[in-house]
């Protein structure tokens, strides 16, 4: 009959869209909205990358490229993955995707069969749950905070089922800005090796760590063959709209992944790939500058929230703060609604990121210092403090 495939019936839309639409609606009536609901960098695509795009167009780099990506970009990424992530990556192990989302979607499609289970640290980036559902697999939620207190291996051991096939491992993490330590990566890796599991590593925020260092789980012994590591140009380079990402994996996964890209998009936009090469030649000082700017924003926002009695741990990476907001309302969905409607402060309810986010709101701080200051002012007026 006239129905979509069963696997799509399992998939939902994100409630983030609902917040975004309500913000647009309020703005169209002339209201000023303090926008902490987004997940985009505050800076624009570097000029060097924009000019490289223009050059690529003028030079007619506008035809089909190899579906796995142009060789110079794959080679440059392999080099980056070796130097920066300490991964054992060669040109043939790299696949260009349409953003990190497409890399992750492909990864789940490449490894999951119906009935498989995936260990998913919660709270999590919402689309991951839907990608797992869409593969007719089941997410097994691992409460991150208590797992970190009680030991990751013990908790993973407890949550895993006989059908567990993969672990989604996101660091720096969205929505709470958690950065897993090298020791934690070693624990997760040991568990994956022992149970013969695949790790899908999401390193979208690798360049945005303010305390400590980013560590790639795929660089640990025995992990190269069982890790699909995914990356994006979105967050490091202010290129969210370009839809450029990549992944690295070994056989048999990389061949499976190449087929998925071949028969879905048949390769990512050719001129964009040439432009992306330019992003990879930015100096280390570029990343350092971004980190300084983000850290400034983080410190301003988190100090302000704590001042207002919205208890907030210091996120170590990415660009989100995840304070407790029970003093506004017990339910985070209601708290977000109250703040948006009454204080014109837009946030995302913690429960959007899984039940473990209850009692929290996500504040994105990829916005200007002035916007953070005036948002905190609006909160202060509303809370009467
Ligand atoms: N992974 C995480 C944790 C994210 O938060 C995002 C974007 O918000 C992505 C991956 C993918 O981003 P994109 O598809 O823009 O590369």
UniProtKB/TrEMBL annotation:
Residues 39-379 form the Aminotransferase class I/classII large domain. One of its GO terms (molecular function) is transaminase activity. SUPFAM superfamilies: PLP-dependent transferases. It comes from the Bacteria. Its cofactor is pyridoxal 5'-phosphate. One of its GO terms (biological process) is amino acid metabolic process. Pfam families: Aminotran_1_2. Keywords: Aminotransferase, Pyridoxal phosphate, Transferase. InterPro entries: Aminotransferase_I/II_large (IPR004839), AspAT/PAT-like (IPR050596), PyrdxlP-dep_Trfase (IPR015424), PyrdxlP-dep_Trfase_major (IPR015421). Belongs to the class-I pyridoxal-phosphate-dependent aminotransferase family. This is Aspartate aminotransferase. It comes from Acidisarcina polymorpha.
């Amino acid at each position: 009959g006239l129905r979509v495939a069963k696997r799509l019936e399992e998939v939902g839309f994100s409630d983030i869209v609902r917040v975004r639409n309500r913000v647009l609606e309020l703005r169209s009536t002339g209201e000023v909205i303090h926008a902490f609901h987004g997940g985009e960098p505050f800076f624009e695509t570097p000029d060097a990358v924009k000019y490289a795009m223009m050059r690529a167009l003028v030079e007619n780099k506008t035809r089909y490229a190899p579906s796995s990506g142009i060789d110079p970009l794959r080679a440059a990424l392999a080099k980056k993955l070796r130097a920066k992530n300490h991964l054992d990556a060669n040109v043939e192990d790299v696949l260009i995707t349409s953003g990190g989302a497409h890399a992750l979607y492909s990864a789940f499609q490449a490894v999951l069969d119906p009935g498989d289970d995936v260990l998913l640290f919660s709270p999590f980036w919402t689309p991951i749950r839907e990608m797992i559902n869409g593969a007719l697999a089941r997410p097994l939620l691992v409460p991150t905070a208590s797992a970190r207190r009680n030991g990751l291996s013990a908790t993973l051991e407890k949550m895993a089922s006989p059908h567990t096939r993969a672990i989604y491992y996101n660091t720096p993490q969205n929505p709470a800005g958690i950065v897993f330590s090298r020791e934690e990566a070693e624990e997760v890796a040991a568990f994956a090796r022992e149970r013969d599991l695949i790790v899908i590593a999401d390193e979208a925020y690798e360049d945005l760590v303010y305390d400590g260092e980013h560590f790639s789980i795929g660089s640990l012994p025995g992990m190269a063959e069982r890790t699909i590591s995914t990356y994006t140009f979105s967050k490091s380079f202010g290129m969210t709209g370009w839809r450029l990402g990549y992944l690295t994996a070994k056989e048999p996964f990389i061949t499976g992944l190449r087929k998925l890209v071949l028969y879905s998009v048949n390769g990512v936009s050719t001129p964009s790939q040439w432009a992306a090469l330019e992003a990879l030649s930015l100096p280390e000082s570029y990343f350092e500058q971004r980190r300084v700017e983000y850290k400034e924003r983080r410190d301003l926002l988190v100090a302000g929230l704590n001042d207002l009695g919205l208890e907030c741990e210091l996120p170590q990476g990415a660009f989100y703060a995840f304070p407790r907001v029970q003093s506004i309302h017990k339910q985070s969905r209601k708290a977000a609604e109250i703040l948006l409607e009454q204080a014109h402060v837009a946030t995302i309810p913690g429960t959007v990121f899984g039940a473990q986010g209850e009692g929290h709101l996500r504040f994105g701080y990829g916005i200007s210092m002035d916007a953070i200051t005036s948002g905190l002012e609006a909160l202060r007026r509303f809370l009467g403090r």
